[in-house]
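User: My collaborator sent over this chain with a note saying "see what the structure looks like." That's all I know about it. Can you take a look?
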Amino acid sequence: MLSVDEAILINQLAQGILDESQGQAWFEERVRDDKLRLLTGLNAFILQARPKPEDVTIAISESRLKPTLTPCVLIAMPNLKVQLAKLLTLPEFELARVFPLLIKLLAAADNRRRREQPLDLENHWWHQDLSDPKIVNEIKRTKGA
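Assistant: Without extra context I'll predict from the sequence alone. Here is the result:
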């Protein structure tokens, strides 16, 4: 399970509030079990965003990873929920590729949903303006961080 701080950071990365290199460094300094826990939480956010095949295409392109790399091939296959679970079984060196790919997938799916339907700011705190320190501090206060 993600801490509120981790969930905020992941969503700030997906929203482009934090620099990709900061996020990558933060992820890579974790031990394997923490990486898997973070990726599991990221997968949950992705599934909540209900990604479509076009979101996957955007994510692969924006990740700047070769489309032939295993993580890219997996998420492009049918049944994304199954493919996301398979990503967690990859060797540790692949997890450094999985993280930015999934951040881009969350970003693509979330951005599309923001365009298609009104945001639920009350029940989905991650749709709030996470660039505003006051909002972030309030989320941390109310969510128990």
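A starting point for your reply to your collaborator: Residues 4-116+124-135 form one domain.
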